[in-house]
Specification:
Elements: H1 8-19, H2 49-60, E1 68-69, H3 82-88, H4 106-123, E2 127-128, H5 135-146, E3 153-157, H6 162-175, E4 179-182, E5 184-185, E6 188-189, H7 191-197, E7 202-209, H8 219-228, E8 232-237, E9 255-259, E10 275-279, E11 292-296, E12 302-306, H9 329-365, E13 382-386, H10 391-400, E14 403-404, E15 407-408, E16 416-420, H11 427-441
Parallel strand pairs: 1-14, 3-4, 3-7, 7-8, 8-9
Antiparallel strand pairs: 2-10, 5-6, 9-10, 11-12, 13-16, 15-16
Helix pairs in contact: 3-9, 4-9, 5-6, 9-11
């Protein structure tokens, strides 16, 4: 019926008649009256596409994008080869939908399989998923992999990222799993205190490597303490650092988790990111999220399929131990392309430059009066210094120069700053920062 425009009111009446209700409000009878909104939404009048774009551009123009950054704290600016975005933006990959139909999803399934394989190589573990929402969720989800009827207590190092710790508190409080924090000593986990906390009721222990303060933990010794107590050892790791530090598999970890953002994902005003999880073979069936396996088709050719299908994402929702109901395939693909393009040598070089530039920053910054180092242990590409002036004042001065400074810390480290350097920071940028800090400290 070319040119026919239906009457909206007639179509609405027809729909209500088909549903057997007198009005649209009856569709919400199951919603208690006291939580319903009894007024229209407070929204401005609609705009045209052109006007909407103008408003959005105006909002975007308020963002301050720094060309020079010395802040990390869980989200890092690394060099991303241009081919990574080019491949990940191909239209056949721009979908987060789970590839249930293997016969028409071989390309996407292979991408996920390659991601899992590279994460296993990076962490030294036997199996990996692809993937969970972010690193904090990965940490929280792994608790369920370790708990059983006899062991439910979770011991977490005080030196892990505070946002990760808060996420774990939320999950543990709802799962009835007591969470205990092991204190840090000189910026690293106090292993004597950890030994005292691990008992017959401990399900798992979490250590971050490098930790939130940038310090390199004695992960192997921590793992030995955990296993002597009969608990599972979980390591939260920075994937770039794993190119040169001992991987979790060599430190005795049962589970390795982390935030995959450093693997080719730009900062992008906070996301989307992806969490990765890897484990030893004996924990494979407890691993949440998507798992792609390699097999042979009926012609004997290589093929890929989703494995362990009888999981909470499909037919066992009422028995779910995880809330992972979708996948981060596009982010995982981006990470896969990044790791493939960089290769082992490229990632080792990136990690090495992070360390050397952070050391150059450390040596020059701590020569400025009042910016003494807080901790004395070895670090990767982050470190903490004291700040002789109010940190917010220092931040404003640096911002005027187009520099995003380190992260001001609070609580017991009030008046201290967490600094970060990556391979993207040049010698000139570091010298300019030190000069600005020196002028502010005078």
């Amino acid at each position: 019926m070319s040119g026919f425009v239906p009457n909206p009111e007639s179509a609405r009446r027809e729909m209500l008649d088909a549903l057997g209700v007198a009005s649209a409000s009856e569709l919400f009878n199951a919603v208690p009256q006291h939580i319903r909104m009894d007024r229209p939404l407070d929204l401005p009048p609609g705009k045209s596409e052109a006007d909407t774009l103008d408003v959005m551009r105006g909002l975007a123009g308020k963002n301050q994008v720094f060309k020079t950054m010395f802040r990390g704290a869980g989200a890092y600016r690394h060099y991303i080869p241009s081919v990574v975005k080019r491949i990940a933006a191909k239209e056949e990959f721009v979908s987060a939908y789970t590839p249930y139909q293997a016969e028409i999803s071989q390309g996407l399934l292979q991408c996920i399989f390659e991601f899992q394989t590279m994460i296993c190589e990076l962490t030294g573990m036997d199996a990996a998923n692809a993937s969970v929402y972010d690193g904090a969720v990965a940490a929280a989800e792994s608790v369920a992999m370790c708990r059983d009827a006899k062991r439910s207590k979770v011991v977490v190092s005080q030196a892990i990222h505070p946002h990760v710790l808060e996420t774990m508190r939320t999950y543990c409080s709802r799962a009835g799993a007591p969470l205990v924090v092991a204190p840090h000593k000189n910026g690293a986990t106090d292993l004597d205190a950890l030994k005292a906390l691990v008992d017959d009721g401990t399900a798992c222990v979490y250590i971050q490597q490098p930790n939130f303060f940038g310090q390199i933990e004695d992960a192997k010794q921590a793992g030995d303490i955990v296993h002597r107590g009969g608990a599972k050892f979980v390591m939260v790791v920075n994937p770039i650092a794993m190119a040169i530090l001992a991987p979790p598999g060599e430190c005795g970890a049962d589970i390795a988790i982390g935030e995959g953002q450093p693997l080719g994902l730009p900062l992008s005003f906070g996301g989307p990111y992806l969490g990765f999880m890897a484990c030893r073979r004996e924990l494979l069936r407890k691993l949440p999220g998507r798992i792609v396996g390699e097999t042979l088709d009926r012609r004997g050719e290589r093929a890929f399929v989703l494995t362990l299908q009888a999981r909470e994402q499909h037919i066992r929702r009422e028995k779910a131990s995880s809330n992972i109901c979708t996948n981060q395939a596009l982010c995982a693909l981006t990470a896969s392309v990044y790791m493939a393009v960089m290769g082992q040598g490229g990632m080792r070089d990136a990690a090495g430059q992070c360390m050397s530039k952070a050391m150059y920053l450390f040596k020059n910054l701590t020569r400025v009066k009042g910016f003494e180092p807080v901790f004395g242990g070895p670090f990767f590409h982050e470190f903490v210094t004291r700040c002789p002036v109010p940190p917010d004042r220092l931040e404003r001065i640096l911002e005027e120069r187009g520099i995003l400074g380190g992260l001001p810390l609070g609580s017991e480290l009030d008046g201290c700053i967490l600094w970060c350097a990556t391979e993207r920071n040049t010698k000139q940028e570091i010298d300019d920062l030190v000069d600005a800090v020196g002028r502010c400290a005078i």
